[in-house]
Amino acid sequence: MKSFKLYILAALMLGVMSMSLTGCKEDKLGPTIFPDEEDVLDPTSYTYKLDKFLKENYLKVYNLEFRYKMEDVGADMNYNLVPATYANSIDMAVLTKHLWFDVYKDVVNPDFLKQYGPRIIHLIGSPAYNVNSGSMVLGLAEGGIKVSLFRVNAMNINDFNQMNEYYFKTMHHEFCHILHQTKTYPSVFNTISVGHYDGSNWQDRQEGVCASLGFVTNYASSAYREDFAEVMANYIVKTDAQWARILDLASRGWASPSSADDPNATYYCWYYYKDNVVSDENKAYLDESQIASETAEDGTVTYYYGRQRDSKGERIVAYQVPDEDGIDGVAAINQKVEIMRNWLRDEWGVDLDALRAEVQKRQVEYNIDELRRWVTDIE
Amino acid sequence: MYIMKKIFNIMAMSLLGASAFVSCTPEVADVFDNSAAERTAEAQKMYTELLVADGGKWQMEYFTNSDEPGYVYVMTFDKNGSVMIAGENKYIAKLTNVDATAPAYGEERSLWEVIVDNGPTLSFNSYNRVFHLFSNPEDVPDTEASEAGEGHLGDYEFTLMRYDGNKLYMTGKKHKIEIILTRLPQDVDDHTYLDEVVALSSKFFSPLIPNVYITLPNGARYLTQDGASLIMSMAPEANETRTKDQDADWISFVESHNAIITPEGLRFMEPITLYGTYEARLAYEAYWKANPEATTEPDIDHVYKVQNFELQDDGSLLCTDDGVTTITADALNKVFASTGIKWRVDLINSAGPLAEAFQEFLSGMTARDGSTVQSFDFILDHVTRDPATGDITEAFFAMDVVVRRRRGGTFKMDFYYQPVVNSNGTVTVNFDGTNNANANTYVTNVPAVSALCELLKATPLTPSAESRLAPTTMVLTAGEGNYITVNAFK
Question: What domains sit in chain B, N to C, each tagged with a CATH number?
Answer without folding.
Answer: 36-189 (2.40.128), 205-328 (no CATH), 337-489 (no CATH)
